[in-house]
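Service request form, structural biology core

Requester: graduate student, group of Dr. S.
Request type: structure prediction, single chain
Budget code: on file
Notes: please return the result as structure tokens.

Sequence provided:
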Amino acid sequence: MNIGIIGLGTVTQGFIEILQEKNIWLQEKYEQKIKVVVVKDIQKGNMYNPNGIDLKKLLEKLNNKELITDASISEDTEVSSVEEVDLIVEATYSDYTTGDPAYTFIKKALSRGKHVVTTNKGPIALHFNELNKLAKESNVFLQYEGTVLSGTPTFSLIEECLAGDEILKIRGILNGTSNYILSKMSEGDSFDSALRTAQDKGYAEADPTNDVKGYDARGKIAILSHKVFGVDLGLDSILTKGIDSISIEEVNAAKKAGKNIRLVGSLEKKGDFLEGKVAPEPLSTTDALSNIDGVTNAIEITTKYLGKLMITGPGAGKLETGYSVFSDVLSILKKEKL
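Core staff response, request fulfilled:
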């Protein structure tokens, strides 16, 4: 299988490291060689080799912050138009207004018969039904495990282990950046100080709006509503409040009451109605979500037969997020063998 990559940020660099390490295992397990034949990044450059890019040299260039462009491919060439590519990994910036440019990248790739793995929340939250329909019509697979809980296997757990059960409610800590800031505030930091630390550590972007306003968590709730409940809630119908208005006084008052404030995203079936919400909540320390600290993410799933289940995992980190892409590639390899 030949892979093309759009976007060379932390996630895809982690994926490349894992792929390099596990390539022999992949050949033995799936009886085919996995090659990265083209990579494109608007800032870092482009590289193409139909026989497979040397991943060690690519990583060295990226780690040394060198431009990777080697004149092997035009800047105007679209990854999905490269004939040798079978699967595209798309990991560009998440836009919650239109989903572009990722939406266009994914749509073109699927229509050209390429499998797609994406960690991009915008196009999946906004265009879920359209993209899944297009993938089926093109007889290819669209995977997006990394859009909700990074590398922690949420969708695969629900689809495989909870098949036949009925999910009644989902609530979780879905944004590691916000959770890190609230955790630091509970230690005495102000919001601004905690945010700066998060940015220094690489947990928060230079523009942290999507995280602190709750938009990132809202996008994940929209994806979960589609994937788990088959309902298109739409972003505007999900009540959303971020953490940017939370004061240190509120955090301290919650602590005195034996509670921790956490940004909680939730979906709950109420008869024929599905309610989606994102908001900071003071949670008792007896609540499992209350004790989730730092950039860790967690989802609590309430089901008809098993009751409450909880999944926790890292919400940041190069290898941790890169594994979400790797696991989706494995999923496609498995489906192709069926």
